[in-house]
């Protein structure tokens, strides 16, 4: 029997289905990876924004991670919305306890509409507890600014921020350039502690980018779970998110979800 590859997402639920746990599980499935989840919070959310956030009790987070750790070893793990320093400490402790090494940390802080998904006081715990465990960290520019305390405008700033982030522990830093800066391209920067690799592509003109960061980091975790190198996993993840944005579904009156079927459609010729 072929070995089934498994990935775990530790993140919040998005009732609208475009971001969070839902985006992660759809991405795992599309990339042929068995998905598992540990919920940190329930959000009431749609394309217009976040209407409410209900963090889970510490015991609920601990119990989910112990259930998975006791029986179902994931080949890769990603974290998304963690909400509080208390949850971050639990998650980091369990990742250490179970030796989950292929870890992608998406340092989710704010939803596209501006609602906070991480308490301000939790940034320090994220840096102290979780970043040292990460194989890959995937901040967008505003998240990188908060983590490093610096303002990022030009390319030299991005490189400086990537160096600072790398010094916090992750082996690979992916500084994402999706945030609309008025340019016609998107430039993601990959830094492995030695060289900078710029990954550039066209900026797709759309407002339907809800869940891009979640989907992208879940796609990286999928590649890692399959045993791909970090560079290979990032390259497939980039193709996955680009297709998902290009063929976005256009639901809702606000920032609609991306299309998790798109990459598979292009590779398998199946329509959703
Ligand atoms: N409009 C866009 N066109 C092309 N790629 C995009 C666009 N928006 C985001 N991306 C890509 O999607 C991925 C997620 O990036 P980003 O949107 O910056 O994350 P986040 O959701 O955390 O803000 C990155 O690889 C980024 O380059
Ligand atoms: C539960 C949850 N987690 C994460 C995000 C961030 O979404 P994005 O990928 O658009 O930054 C979100 N809106 N909701």
Features:
nine-stranded mixed β-sheet; 272 residues; binds adenosine-5'-diphosphate; 9 helices; binds (4-amino-2-methylpyrimidin-5-yl)methyl dihydrogen phosphate; thiamine biosynthesis; alpha/beta; 39% helix; UDP-N-acetylmuramoyl-L-alanine:D-glutamate ligase
Question: Could you walk me through the main structural features you see in this protein, from its secondary elements to its overall organization?
Answer:
With 272 residues, this protein is an alpha/beta fold. It has one domain: UDP-N-acetylmuramoyl-L-alanine:D-glutamate ligase, CATH 3.40.1190.20. Helices cover 39% and strands 21% of the residues. Strands 3-2-1-4-5-6-7-8-9 form a nine-stranded mixed sheet, with helices on both faces. Helix 3 (85-98) links the parallel strand 4 (76-79) and strand 5. It starts with 5 loop residues before the first strand and ends with a helix. The mean pLDDT is 95. The protein binds adenosine-5'-diphosphate and (4-amino-2-methylpyrimidin-5-yl)methyl dihydrogen phosphate (MP5).
Ligand inventory reads:
adenosine-5'-diphosphate, (4-amino-2-methylpyrimidin-5-yl)methyl dihydrogen phosphate
**Percent of residues in helical segments?**
25-40%
- Structural class designation: alpha/beta
Q: List the uncertain runs.
A: none
The CATH architecture classification is 3-Layer(aba) Sandwich
> Rg to the nearest angstrom?
17 Å
What is the count of β-strands? 9
How much of the sequence lies in strands comes to: 15-25%
* CATH class category name: Alpha Beta
Which of globular, elongated, flat, extended, rod-shaped describes the shape? globular
What oligomeric arrangement do these chains adopt?
single chain
Biggest sheet strand line-up: 3-2-1-4-5-6-7-8-9
- State the fourth-level CATH superfamily: Ribokinase
